[in-house]
Amino acid sequence: MFLKYLPPVLFSMFFVGMCSFYYITYLSMQGVYIQLIVGCVVLLMVMSAIQVIRFGPGYVDQDKLETQLFNELQEELKLLMMSEDRLLDFLDQNQCNQPLSEEQLIHMLNIKVLESKGIKICKTCQSYKPLRAHHCSQCKQCVFRMDHHCMWLNICIGMQNYKYFMMLIFYLNLCIILVLITYFQTYILAIEESDFQLIAKFTYYHSIFTLFMLFFPFFLHHIGCQQSNDY
Ligand SMILES: [Zn+2]
Ligand SMILES: [Zn+2]
After folding, report:
1. MF terms per GO, please (predicted)?
2. Which ligand is nearest to the CA of 128?
3. Exposed (0-12), middle (13-18) or buried (19+): which is 19, by Cβ within 10 Å?
4. How far is the C-alpha of 135 from the C-alpha of 122, rounded, in Å?
5. How far is the CA of 139 from the centre of ligand 1 (A)?
6. Residues carrying an active site annotation
7. 14 C-alpha to center of ligand 2: Å?
8. DSSP 59
9. CA of 142 relative to ligand 1 center, distance in Å
10. What is the pLDDT of residues 161-218, one digit of tens each?
């Protein structure tokens, strides 16, 4: 149970640590307007992360789906009972020659309703799985338009929070670009003043921050996926 929260906690600690270091050593040397811009981007990033968690991925609401299916089944049953031609047609379609019990008829109607809606039974959690829903093994639930389970936030990314997740990745990239620009300015300053200790320190932290650049292809991949609509 505790392990579940380890990645988000470690990630937050690492990120906060890096940001504090960045602020103390670099940003404090920059103009107030740069500090304000970086501050706003970080704030927007945190707000997007909160929205991702607040909205959730959009788990399949089994109770709502069951009520919907039940109502539809009742409607179909009513229509069949009202017209004999329709009932005969239905039996013909299902290749039934012998008379059916009410239970058998309801069972067949149930299959028809599920098929018409593209709803399947999830092999893992045995509950109804609508079209484009996927099962998440970490959440142990089916999720609408599941993208992936984000281990850093420990939440699924699905239909409901995808927009906020994209915003989070966008602000994260913006933050990295700002960091790289401001780093560069201070770096040049350190070279001009021949402060080798500072240059070594900068190079070390710069390479760690560059690791965050790995998020950029990830962002492009998500944009590409969204445009081709294949997620
Ligand atoms: Zn499932
Ligand atoms: Zn999940």
Report:
1. protein-cysteine S-palmitoyltransferase activity
2. 1
3. middle
4. 7
5. 9
6. 150
7. 23
8. B
9. 4
10. 999 999 998 888 888 788 777 777 777 777 888 878 777 777 776 666 666 666 666 6
CA nearest to 45, candidates 226, 221, 215: 215
Is 168 or 19 the better-scoring residue by pLDDT?
168
Considering the chain, what is the average pLDDT of its residues? 80
The Cα-based distances of 217 to 2, 70, 78, 169, 170 in angstroms read: 31, 45, 54, 10, 11
Pick the closest to residue 214 from 181, 169, 152 (CA basis). Answer: 169
State both tokens at 79.
């229509």
- Tell me the two tokens of residue 187: 């770096």
Distance 57 CA to ligand 2 centre (A): 8
- Whether this prediction's pTM lies above 0.85 is answered by no
Instruction: Kindly give the distance from the C-alpha atom of residue 138 to the centroid of ligand 2, in angstroms, as a whole number.
Output: 5
Q: Which ligand is nearest to the CA of 4?
A: 2
Ligand closest to 134 (CA) is 1
> What local confidence, expressed as pLDDT, does residue 231 receive?
41
